[in-house]
Specification:
two-stranded parallel ribbon; 2 domains; disordered C terminus; elongated
Length: about 400
């Protein structure tokens, strides 16, 4: 069990902030195309229009859903401290900025927080809320909240009034798992129902990466609604019936010493035709990317085994045609140098010319190249004319070590 010093709750809070920001940007973009978002700038989440803050949002995630917000709640006063400071320093204009506290906790009935819910039908009363908060700031002896009380009271009375009128308390908000479900619902019209989970997984992965780039010190990277919509459209395209999503677009570096015995045969195939070490590394990258990609497609039921088998038959058929031509041209030739040269030519066709796509619009080259290496690893295709004779013994060795 997590100890009292566990960082679990804090980590969940950060993930909640990032995930909730994604949900907000999707929704805000429908009303204000081109809006931009920043995280951990003036506030947890800030919406900007043409570089001007228009909404500051604090997010608070509680592991226990029973967390409550009283007039002296640290959660309330930490938030007020941030907004009061931004007001005093002229970083925001209260005339043009909305201030929101999104929390999974619940405001105690009759508390100042309960009176600042955005819906007037829920009893919103800004004047009463302000009076309660002023009273706490003047009378409370809390040392934890003292810095917040001090900065709040530094505001002029008219600034305090303007501040409170801009605040919306969104208590009992969805928790981190509920936000996930809401995001999936937002994507309902982006793809067929069976693909929603896969699209969400990829969208959130892209989003986290975008947030990381944004948070790097001195980064000028903005998180824009336009970039988010472009990504969603791109994912829609990838999940069409004639396409598949690409999850490993960048080459990977795999040390040959880390390659298992059962996955070394395709490397030995390449060594038979005397390719350079850089090309072996590139082939190894293609092999592993294709292996992981195909496995992921099958796990997510985006690609079925019979479709993959049909694709491999197409690859083998095209290879057979070219291999037979090579064999015919070399009939009776026993010169090893020529065997290597012709095998290299066949390999080069796969590496630079072949264009056999698993689906019409899934054109990422590593899928085909890596699939050929997977077949080569099983000795179902090869490059050297004598590849079976020279490497057949490795099948037994690999099986024995599996």
């Amino acid at each position: 069990m997590p100890s009292e010093f566990s960082a679990n709750a804090s980590a969940l809070g950060y993930f909640y902030q990032i995930r909730y920001a994604l949900l907000l940007l999707i929704r805000a973009g429908r009303k204000i195309p081109g809006i931009e978002l920043s995280i951990e700038n003036l506030d947890d989440i800030v919406f900007e229009e043409k570089g001007t803050p228009v909404q500051l949002i604090q997010t608070k995630h509680h592991v226990k859903s029973t967390a409550s917000l009283s007039d002296s709640s640290t959660e309330i006063w930490k938030t007020l401290r941030i907004w009061s400071t931004a007001t005093l320093q002229g970083e925001i204009s209260l005339d043009d900025t909305i201030l929101s506290l999104v929390t999974t906790g619940r405001a105690i009935d009759g508390s100042a927080a309960s009176l600042l819910r955005p819906d007037k039908n829920q009893g919103r009363n800004e004047d009463s809320a302000l009076a309660m908060l002023r009273n706490v700031a003047h009378s409370s002896t809390s040392t934890t909240n003292k810095p917040a009380y001090t900065v709040f009271l530094e505001l002029k009375e008219e600034q305090q009034t303007a501040l409170i009128r801009k605040i919306n308390i969104l208590d009992s908000s969805p928790n981190i798992l509920d936000v996930r479900e809401q995001l999936i619902n937002e994507l309902t019209y982006s793809a067929r129902p069976e693909h929603l989970e896969s699209i969400f997984e990829r969208l959130e992965g892209w989003w986290v990466n975008a947030v990381v780039k944004h948070l790097i010190p001195n980064s000028s990277v903005k998180i824009s609604q336009r970039a988010l919509m472009d990504k969603i459209i791109d994912l829609q395209e990838q999940f069409h019936l004639d396409n598949l999503p690409i999850d490993f677009p960048s080459p990977i570096n795999v040390e040959e010493s880390k390659i298992g015995e059962d996955q070394r045969i395709f490397v030995e195939q390449i060594r038979l035709i005397m390719l350079s070490e850089p090309r072996i590394r590139t082939a190894t990258s293609d092999y592993y990317r294709a292996f992981e990609q195909r496995s992921k497609w099958i796990r997510e039921e985006l690609l079925f085994v019979d479709e993959l088998e049909a694709y491999e038959r197409r690859l083998i058929d095209e290879w057979i045609r070219r291999f037979d031509i090579m064999m015919e041209d070399m009939s009776g030739d026993r010169e090893e140098e020529r065997k290597q040269r012709e095998g290299k030519s066949l390999f080069n066709w796969v590496d630079t010319q072949a264009n056999i796509n698993i689906r019409h619009r899934c054109t990422e080259p590593y899928v085909m190249r890596g699939s050929y290496h997977i077949l080569a690893n099983d000795l179902r295709v090869g490059w050297h004319v004598d590849f079976i004779k020279r490497l057949q013994h490795l099948i037994g060795v690999a099986s024995g070590n599996a």
